[in-house]
Amino acid sequence: MLLALLLAPLNGPWLAPYELVCALLVFPLLVYLAASSAVGAVGQKVCGSAGTASYALYILHTPIGRTAVLVASVLHWSLANDIAAASLMVAFIALSWAADVWYDRPIRRWIKWIDRLRPPFNWPDPERRLQLRD
């Protein structure tokens, strides 16, 4: 259903209202339905991986897309055909997954490790803070 919504062949004056209805009504409904559905162990693994990689996809889609457009213009390729668009989508997903596995996860582990080494900061009680100001 999501793929059908995203690939709807709309142009011209109906595109903006269509996107508005999708953003305000359809996509939140899809999120609600997905969040309220029960999935098995394999589905949880797939959905968890997709959710984790989606952040990298969100962060990287603009630089990857602009790089693809630049490369296509230098090499005189057309990104308008279906094979190029599908290849670009596969590249987006693969690079997002790789960024999550080899960059984001190690950085998060390192930050947690550093955080364990740091002694906890004990805030002074409010009355003591007032005394320190004077």
Which structural category fits the helices and strands? mainly alpha
Roughly how many Å is the radius of gyration? 23 Å
Strand content: under 5%
**N/C terminus separation:** 64 Å
Number-wise, the strands total 0
Provide the succession of SSEs: HHHHH
| Number of helices, where a helix is a run of at least 4 consecutive DSSP H or I residues | 5
- Which word captures the global form? extended
Poorly predicted residue ranges = none
Helical coverage, percent range: over 70%
Describe what this molecule looks like in 3D.
This protein is mainly alpha-helical. The chain has a domain at 53-118. Helices cover 78% and strands 0% of the residues. The chain contains five helices and no strands. The protein has helices at residues 2-6, 15-35, 41-74, 82-117, 126-133. α3 (41-74) crosses α4 (82-117). The longest helix is centred in the C-terminal third of the chain and has 36 residues, at 82-117. The radius of gyration is 23 Å and the shape is extended.
